[in-house]
Design goal:
Blueprint: H1 2-7, E1 13-17, H2 25-40, E2 44-48, H3 52-62
Parallel strand pairs: 1-2
Helix pairs in contact: 2-3
Length: 73
Amino acid sequence: MALARKILEDNAFFILDDALVFSDVERTVRQHEVLNKFSEVGWQTLYFTSNQDTAKELEDLSGNKLISLEELP
């Protein structure tokens, strides 16, 4: 994220697919906070996860609505 901020002059967006799945709890909490700070200054984040706990944590922290995708057959 620091690299993205350094390279891009304007706000942009992140697309993350279970990017924190192998992180420990403390690191995950910190990363959620960082994602939220990016959001507060105008960055957009699409975070895809199959972990309902992660989805709920991000929804609660950001105040944004969770969008669930239908499971494919």
